[in-house]
Amino acid sequence: MGRIALLPDEVASQVAAGEVVERPASVVKELVENSLDAGATRIEIAIAKGGASLVRVVDNGIGMDRDDALLSLERHATSKIRTGNDLATIHTLGFRGEALPSIASVSRFRLATRPTDAIEGTEILVNGGKIDTVRACGEAPGTLIEAKHLFYNLPARRKFLRTENTEASHVHHQLMLQALGHPEVGFVLLRDQAVIFQLPPTQSLGTRISDLRGDEIMKQVVEIEPTTVDGISIRGFLGKAGVSRPTRAEQIIFVNGRAVENLTIQHGLREGYHTALMKGQYPLVFLFIDLDPADVDVNVHPAKREVRFRHPDVIRHALTETVRKTLDSDRGNWSRAFASPRLSPAPPAADVAPPPSSAKPPGSEPIAPLVPLVEQFALRKDWHEFPQSQQKEQTLVAPEIFHSETNAPILSDRQTPAPPASTPQNGQAAAPSEFRLLGVLGKLYVLMENEEGLVLVDQHAAHERILFERLRHETETAGVPCQRLLIPIVLRLPPKDYDWLLLNAPSLQKLGFSVEPFGESTLKIDGIPQFLRMKDPANTIRQLVDELRSVTSSTSRLRLGEDVIAKTVCRYAVKANDQLHSAEIGQLVKDLLACDLPYCCPHGRPTMIQIGYSELEKKFGRKV
Length: 624
Known about the structure:
Elements lengths: L8 H12 L3 H14 L4 E7 L5 E6 L6 H6 L27 H7 L2 E7 L6 E7 L2 E8 L4 E7 L6 H4 L5 H18 L4 E6 L2 E6 L5 H9 L7 E9 L2 E8 L4 E2 L5 E5 L2 E2 L3 H11 L8 E2 L1 E6 L5 E2 L10 E2 L2 H26 L4 E3 L25 H8 L56 E8 L3 E6 L2 E6 H20 L3 E11 L2 H9 L1 H6 L3 E4 L4 E8 L7 H13 L12 H11 L9 H12 L14 E5 H7 L5
Helix pairs in contact: 1-4, 2-6, 8-9, 11-15, 11-16
């Protein structure tokens, strides 16, 4: 007798259900997607005991007649596709015809449905996949589905369910995704007969986000101007620069209305934010991507959480450019808010000379190999350009760092007048923002007052951003000097990495690496960037391979070295305890606002913070 046998239909259904029905939230997801595909404009969801005892979904969609209702409980019965070619152009959320029979096979199931133009509806009762009763009913137009005692016939599976609160939170999260993805549909969620939320239909995504997450979150995001790139439509909201989360839990991404997870999209987001995020942090996004269904495959995951793109580089490039433009538009708002700052001088204060130990003349200490490059690139043009006649009265701050080849001092005395407000090229004077310098807190945070309230500027983070962008620009323009190694390094790589590195050799050379083939799957490294200090160049090359894979061909691959540039400028920027005066602060703010990304340092930390009068009034109890 053979060892292979066909499984009974009941067991086969339970096996299939294991792929579709993972927990109560999976049931809610599948049923709500069916309701959306049926054209519902209002969906009510009720759960009991976290969904393990009851999941009920009621909608006002098109409903089904008796024959369709019975057929919907058969495996692979669906109204959404007809041929294999339809899988390449899926327009609906569901399409496999597995959800209802899978749910019915692991629960006590009730389906009541009625088409809009029918006098009576149909009710079907199913226990563990076996139909018990089929009868007429008088339900309202639409469809009602109940799944009670989930996994009652699979005790081994039921014991893997978590606590009621945990399962209920998964249901809540799943409904939040569906509500965000379809703001034009009203949603009601009841848990143990208590209303959790009741969302009216709206045409505004921002309104739906506020209804679900509160008004406060809208202050942390900026709206994407709807744009279409290469047939790819992108819209939604992005977290402002410096706003981040420790996990990807708040990366809400939809592709053609379906909530998904995708590495291509994540890489595009990361590249778009670039230095606007701290390392290890993730952006806050509510992102909607719409494209031709033929260019995206949704049939690659049992729960349809993952998708695959036909042209991933196109998607990544379009998303990266959209994120950059959105953040740049937000930068414009900051620039207008802080445009052409005119500082009122701070009250007179005695000069604070730097400690004798720090006031060493230039050249008295060994200079790190990076310093000449920083001076050449970032400090070649004096950070503060003041009349030569005033330089004799200047007070040097951290002279071992800020000096030029001529030993001319950089920073000016506090009595030096602030630079005049700049005038746009069109000849019309920009409306200046009036600032009054209040002082410096902790010898690090510059305090200023404007019409909106209190402005705090981190002088170290601000100068980091200024130096970073100058050094990056020079690096991209002229390339990085290469330092030849006395003893070349021979690096053996897997064939795939070897081919990848040869393909990207020009980018590595502009970064200052000198690499060439040295036999089968072997590279010879005989030069490294002049200003990089690395204990293990071979390991650095291996790390660059992974980073090269995450950038598009249209992206400047010199960004691969920006982590090093960021660490470099951190050491040579103005520090805490460095004394700055009003004119110096004015120039610092002016240079900061001239940067491409002024509101965060290269590590993603904020450079300036605005505390409005309304917030201060709340703190002091003047306003509720």
